[in-house]
Specification:
159 residues; mainly alpha; 93% helix; 0% strand
Amino acid sequence: MISDCLPHQVLGEKRKAVGDQAFKLKNGLQKLSDTAIQVGEMSVELEKKKKVVAIAQTETEELLVVIVQENHVVAEEQKKVNTEKEKIGKDEVETRKIADDAQADLDKAMPALEAATKALEGLNKKDISEVKAYAKPHKLVEKTLEAVMVPPDCRLIAA
């Protein structure tokens, strides 16, 4: 009896093992089939994305060319701006020197102007009548009166 059980038992075990292996093989083949389908779908999607990437890369290269050109234009403009800035700086120095010279001349002339103003305030009608009475005044008196005779508007223009 024991001997009869043993071959049946071994046969059952072997059938079970073969059945398990067949099930595993069937599942493995199914997974391979599903994976092949997914790989096919992914390949189609990959080709679409490759086209999109190629278009984007072309657009990027075109934009890069535009950016490089614009950078050249900006560099040229920057050179012009720097040149103009240097010129303006030199002009500013020259203008400041002229202004300083003018201020120094004005500072020298102001005391004479103030003295002349005080002298004019000291004149009265008698002094003016005396100058009018001259038939032929001295050249310096004549020149002074010519300066005084200039209308106020003309003095502003001459200044």
